[in-house]
Amino acid sequence: MFSHICVGVSDFERALSLYEPLMATLGIEARFCERSRPWAGWQSSPGPRPLFIIGKPFNQLAPAPGNGNMVAFLAESRATVDQAFSIALANGGTSEGPPGLRPEYHENYYGAYFRDPDGNKLCVACHSAQC
Q1: From CA 4, how far away is CA 50, in angstroms rounded?
Q2: Which pLDDT tens digit goes with each residue over 75-118?
Q3: Overall average pLDDT of the 4-19 stretch
Q4: How many other C-beta atoms are found inside a 10 Å radius of the C-beta of residue 40?
C-alpha cells in the first residue's frame, strides 16, 4: 500500500538519536543515513518497501507536525512496546499515552504513544493476544 512515509525533523542528529535505537528495538533495518543531506531511512522486511524516512524538509522550511497525523509501528510483543516507549522517552521523546491495553480499539490492542523532539506523533502497537 505505501511506498514510503516521511517525517520532517529540525535537528537531524537529535532525531537520529531517538530513531536509531527505536528502530533497532523494533527490528527494523536501516537502509541509508546521509548526514550531509540530511536524511535517513529504514526498510521493511523482507522487501525494501515501504520505507520510513526522517529528514529536513526539502523546501528548507521548518518542519511542522500535523494535527491528527501519526505513524504507527508494529511490535512483535508487548515487551517490545514497553521497551520502545522507554527508549523514545530516554532519547528526547514525550509521552502521549503510556503502554497499555486499549480495548476501545480491540480486545488485544496494546500500544504506546509518544512524540519525537519535533512533535511528530508516533505509536508502537501489538495486536495479538499472544504478544
Answers
A1: 5
A2: 999 999 999 999 999 999 999 999 999 999 999 999 999 999 99
A3: 96
A4: 22
Domain-by-domain residue ranges, the chain?
Answer: 4-58+65-126
- The residue behind cell 480491540 is 106
CA-based nearest residue to 122, from 65, 70, 54: 70
**Nearest Cα to Cα of residue 7 among 37, 52, 68, 62:** 52
**Residue 29 identity (one-letter amino acid):** E
Mean pLDDT along residues 1-8: 92
Task: Please tell me the distance from the alpha carbon of residue 22 to that of residue 93, in angstroms, as a whole number.
Answer: 11
Q: Are 75 and 88 in contact (CB under 8 A)?
A: no
| pTM, to two decimals | 0.91
Q: How far apart are CA 92 and CA 89, in angstroms?
A: 6
Q: What digits encode the pLDDT tens for the residues 19-53?
A: 999 999 999 999 999 999 999 999 988 888 899 99
**From CA 42, how far away is CA 24, in angstroms rounded?**
10
Q: Which fold has domain 4-58+65-126?
A: 2,3-Dihydroxybiphenyl 1,2-Dioxygenase; domain 1 (3.10.180)
